[in-house]
Amino acid sequence: MILLTTTGSLGDLHPYLAIGVGLKQRGHAVAVGTCEFYRERVEKLGLEFRPIGPHLSPDDPEMIKIIVDPKKGSEYIFRQLLMPHLPQIYDETVRAVQGVDLVLSHPITLGTPLVAEKLKLPWASAVLSPISFFSIHEPTEIPGHPIAAAMTRGPLWLRKFIHWSGRRQTLDWARPLIEFRKELGLSPNVHPLFDGQHSPHRVLAIYSSLLGSPQPDWPRQTTVTGFCFHDRRDGTEALSPGLTKFLESGPPPIVFTLGSTAVQNPGSFYKESAAAAKLLGKRAVLLGNAPASPDVWVEPYAPYSLLFPKCEAIVCSGGIGTIGQALRSGTPFLVVPHGNDQPDNAARLARLGLASWLDRGHYRSGFIADELEELLADPQARSKARECARTIAQEDGVASACAALEKMLTP
Question: How is the chain split among helix, strand and coil, in percent rounded to 5?
């Protein structure tokens, strides 16, 4: 039995479901340990569900409002959403690992490293985006801290200082976990945001090598697998009849989406997006809750893998799962990052010339229209997008991740 533990939004769940289905197809028994909110999604795929808290609703708009705040989001996740529930998370993880031969963890499933270390259970860890490595050898867009982010583009000594400073400042967020480790008889000299999240046995970077390749300070046991794609509740899910008819009734539209997190706190995103499309004389698909019009189709959710290839351009908030699907589709896109890993994802794409980047504070119809007009008029943009899609197609993330985990099961 292999247990996959994850927590957070659909962007955090989907890669683990992809790996779970892949392992199941290769003959393994698979369970997914996550919050009760996702029980139905897990079980619909024929995977065993095992509850691991915190059992929060990822649809809570007030919670999401703070999570996507560039300055307060990450601290809020650790201090308010994780640490108060640490004993519950640990106890539920202990129950979830019963009969398990191997565990794959998420960067913030804090109970998994504790239980694996305490019970001497084989475990691998995964990171979903490059910022999780906090490498001193690459520039890092630190959400809400533009000066510190600029310093990561400076000389090595300055990058080392920023890394040391970040580790020291965030250590206070993890004090309850450090004390809990002492109670369990484990070493307190572990930082869960830095070395503590990485397995000493195997680390899977489950994103494309386009976004990041191994650096000297990455754990040596790291494998970059490529994206692990999943965005359909089951094998039969398709685009809705209404959306299909809209797509077929005119030229390819521009799709505007905030992923699975920021969509709960959209602000004026949809209003400005629809206005920008009108300025450009383009049709639009808005994924979320917004007013519709003859040239604007609104849909709460649609599988990106089916929708993106049918669109002229994509505007997204830069979550790693959405970026993966955008790159896979071969469609040019514009990123409007909100918080957490999104600014760093956007900066990496911009440095590679793979996408445009518009600051959230400038997300107004005129600015959006200007960026999109330039993107759509660039003859290289679609060519580069298709080139990236070919690279993504060659990276079978699920197969690579499954193979890496199977090696750990071999005596």
Answer: 50, 10, 40
Q: Into which CATH architecture does domain 241-394 fall?
A: 3-Layer(aba) Sandwich (3.40)
Contact indicator for 261, 11 with CB cutoff of 8 Å = yes
CATH 3.40.50.2000 domain position(s) in the chain: 2-227+396-409, 241-394
Taking only the tens place, the pLDDT of each residue in 30-57 is 999 999 999 999 999 999 999 999 998 8
pLDDT average, residue stretch 95-109: 97
pLDDT digits (tens, 9 = 90+) for 376-402: 999 888 899 999 999 999 999 999 999
DSSP H helical segments within 172-224, as ranges? Answer: 175-183
Calpha distance 254→251 (Å, rounded): 10
Question: Largest Cα–Cα distance of the chain, in whole Å?
Answer: 65
Q: Does residue 74 surpass a pLDDT of 70? A: yes
CB of 330 closer than 8 Å to CB of 388:
yes
Q: 2-227+396-409 belongs to which CATH class? A: alpha beta
Give the Cα separation of 140 and 340 in Å (integer). 12
- The answer to whether residue 76 scores a pLDDT higher than 80 is yes
Q: How far apart are CA 334 and CA 283, in angstroms?
A: 16
pTM: 0.95
DSSP code of 297?
E
- The sheet with strand 30-34 has its strands ordered as 48-51, 30-34, 2-5, 102-105, 123-127, 203-205, 222-224
Among residues 1, 9, 404, the alpha carbon closest in space to that of 206 is found at 404
326 vs 240: CA distance, rounded Å: 20
Q: How many helices (H) and strands (E) does the chain have?
A: 17, 13
Classify residue 34 as left (phi > 0), alpha (psi -120 to 50) or beta: beta
The partner residues of 3 in beta bridges, in order of sequence, read: 31, 103
Residue written as tokens 């200082």?
161
Residues with Cβ within 8 Å of 2's Cβ and at least 6 positions away in sequence, in order, are 23, 28, 29, 30, 31, 100, 101, 102, 103, 104, 405, 409
